[in-house]
What we know:
The relative contact order is 0.22. The chain is mostly helical. The radius of gyration is 22 Å and the shape is globular. The two termini are 25 Å apart. A hairpin with a 2-residue loop joins strand 1 (2-6) and strand 2 (9-13). The chain has one domain: Amino acid/polyamine transporter I, CATH 1.20.1740.10. The chain is built from 16 helices and 4 strands. The strands form 2 sheets. The protein has a two-stranded antiparallel sheet with strand order 1-2.
Amino acid sequence: MHVNEENGVVREHELNRVLGPWQLIALGIGIIIGAGIFVSTGKVAAEYAGPGVMIAYLIAGFGCALAGLCYAEFSAMIPVAGSAYSYSFATFGKFAAWIIGWDLILEYLAAGSAVAVAWAGYFNGLMADIGIHVPEHLSAPPLKWEGGLNLVASGATINLPATGLVLGLTALLVIGIRASANFNSAMVILKLAVVLLVIGFGLQYINMDNLTPFIPPAVDSEHFGWGGIVRASGVVFFAYIGFDCVSAAAAEAKNPQRNVPLGILGSLGICTILYLLMCIVMTGVTHYSNLGVSKPVSVAVQAMGANMDWLVKLTNFGATLGLGTVVLGLLLGQSRIFYAMSRDGMLPPLFSKVHPRFRTPYISTVLIGGVAAVLAAFLPEDLLIELVAIGTLTAFVLVCLAVIVLRKTHPNVPRPFKVPLMPWVPIGGMAVCAFMIYGLPLDTKLRWVVWFVLGMGAYFLYARKNAKTPSYALKRD
């Protein structure tokens, strides 16, 4: 890799451009298919939307598609580590970059912990399939969320499987794990096979009575009715977390002007179709009120009949392996965000310190893994998911805004890919993401405000004084 200045832009290149559209689509599917499809669908249907959860997925997918196009423009123009954090630093400077970086820390920490909790539910089911029963008080969060600010004791002691998974994967990341294309492809195939089998068999067992009413009558402004759909859209947004990794691969894509948007929109489109079909099956084979459990897909398969026990076991196996790789990717992504922020002086230099033997940012990795393990050990998944949603949606709004601003302030910067229909696509992205933020409960917004205030303290005490202009920052035209 070398650095070259071109038309006022310091660009890092050239990586080997080998990824075609199908490889980018597969990359997106592999990351997106995770806790969203194996857990969120059932819980959101049971608690907020009923069969109308399908509408929530359409809203969330549309917002992600609009934001994804903005990510594609940035990733092709500024192909560096750090994702939305780096894009904001290059465009707006250190203050906006800190806000997004702080949001991304919340996103990745909470997401990794949430998926680990989801993984634990399927892991416990897998162990039960082979005759090993993990004690309930050691396999569930000791706190459960009853809505609002109410966290109450669940009777459990610790979620030991989720904690063990996070700590084990953290150790692997410190030692240095090399991503294997064949392994990742196998995981994608396995997850898709499980999903397609559930859909294929489940369509034969749908009872239309379970889908009526499609939108259950409202209990209050957040549970069922159209208010529940709005609330659900902000929660199921979690199901799409990870599509931005496709945009991050722009520097390694053949013909990024064409293939990156195809990769983003293709993976989002395919996953949205799978989510909708899974919603139909899960709420069709059993009443939505039965799905508010830790492994709702298994519950839906069990409702198909005793002859489907083999598919229940396959679902537990596929979800356990598939969700584990998602946690690994999220922990890896968080450590790279820390590394990028430390590289730019936003965080202390020890967070960008590389292990002399393993060549990994080991201090960042250990800290992130430790905090994520604590969150997974004690907090319920639904609380973590909503924290992920508000942090990520805020970052998406700022990325969409940055594309509009950058077109005005830096019109001559080379753009291998341009967002179409400017400025309506980014405006639409901001509007849909803001709509989903609006649908989240007040207590989630209050927790985000607390996180934001803590971030402002850290910014003024450290980052503002120590941040330095990165090499990839854009110069005025």
